[in-house]
Specification:
Rossmann fold; four-stranded parallel beta sheet; alpha/beta; five-stranded parallel beta sheet; binds N-carbamoyl-L-aspartate; single chain; about 325 residues
Length: about 325
């Protein structure tokens, strides 16, 4: 695909070579994300970061990624404080904000809303999550993380075994990640969910048609066995009609140190898009795994900055120019990476 000027709305836009290209540029972003070097590649450029649903990681990491490339960020984080609350259409908002920005990231509660917004936008739009539908940048950073983690176990994406656990009906991250994995070969998916929160049938049949193996189960203990990666998710309570309805499923599937040791293969990579619901009644991923070497959740969030930098660099056509204006940074950067 031609990244320059492209909207990123769905993982379905990507060929395997496009994913490789994003990962290659993401790798080149390490010195900048790790504060060894600074660049002015996007000096003067403005990101319109429009979040009409709660977000911490996605919003802040897109913002940081843009800043790290030398650009500036303008944010709208609430429907209440934006003109959408006065009845403005997505069309008008898109026409206006795209006059102010060079690229826009948008999150919105409705399926298809970001695509509708992109049609009216005069600049590229990245889907930061449209309701339960898709979250393409998360899928890219998840896959980038899987690739790195498996490489350090001498494994690879083709042929891997992955378990996805929790609310696979409403979770847009697992919808996007599994559809991105359609580009790879011979993967075994074990989908561990309550019967009511199963992965949409359309996605399951696409996976099967592409030659992957899909096992659907409510038996977590059996399902945890024999995976390279397990990907936990939160019950997406905001997608239920009432909180009470979500409460039925909260805490149904939990991973902690003793369950991991008992049922998972050693070195099984543990992932979660975050936020994890750490309230006692949910606690799908226990804090007692925080020091576990296979817990990749914070490497996942760090990788998000690299992948989002790569997307901006490619879309705005500066991927080859990032090093031109590079300099060493002058501030104390500590040992966090
Ligand atoms: C996810 C989301 O918003 O879809 N969070 C994220 O972007 N990392 C997952 C979630 O909210 O459970």
């Amino acid at each position: 695909m031609d990244f320059r000027g492209a909207h990123i709305l769905s993982v379905k836009q990507f060929e395997r070579t496009d994913v490789d290209r994003v990962f290659q540029v993401a790798d080149a972003m390490v010195p900048y994300a790790h504060r060894q070097r600074a660049t002015r590649a996007l000096e003067g450029a403005i990101l319109g970061n429009m979040f009409f649903e709660p977000s911490t990681r996605t919003r802040v990491s897109f913002g940081c990624a843009f800043n790290l490339l030398g650009g500036q960020v303008r944010e709208t984080t609430d429907v209440k404080t934006s003109s959408i609350s006065k009845g403005e259409s997505l069309y008008d908002t898109a026409r206006v904000i795209s006059g102010y920005s060079d690229v826009i990231v948008m999150r919105h509660p409705q399926t298809g809303s970001v695509a509708e917004f992109a049609k009216a936008s005069r600049v590229p739009v990245i889907n930061g999550g449209d309701g339960p539908n898709e979250h393409p940048s998360q899928a890219l950073l998840d896959l980038y993380t899987i690739k790195k983690e498996l490489q350090s176990n001498d494994g690879q994406i083709d042929g891997m075994h992955i378990a996805m656990i929790g609310d696979l009906k409403h979770g847009r991250t697992v919808h996007s990640l599994s559809q991105l994995l359609l580009l790879y070969n011979n993967i075994t998916f074990t989908l561990i969910t309550p019967a009511e929160l199963r992965m949409p049938e359309a996605i399951v049949s696409e996976l099967k048609q592409a030659g992957h193996t899909v096992i659907e189960t409510e038996d977590m203990e059996a399902g945890l066995n024999d995976n390279d990666t397990i990907y936990l998710t939160r019950i997406q309570e905001e997608r239920f009609t009432t909180k009470l309805e979500a409460d039925i499923y909260r805490g149904r599937f939990r991973l902690n140190q003793s369950i991991y040791t008992r049922y998972c293969q050693p070195n099984t990579v543990i992932m979660h898009p975050l936020p994890r619901d750490s309230r006692a009644e949910a606690n799908e991923l226990d804090n007692d795994l925080n020091q576990h070497p296979s817990l990749a959740i914070f490497r996942q969030t760090d990788n998000g900055v690299l992948v989002r930098m790569a997307l901006f660099a490619l879309i705005l056509g500066v991927a080859e120019k990032v090093d031109d204006s590079a300099r060493d940074v002058g501030w104390y950067t500590g040992g966090r990476f």
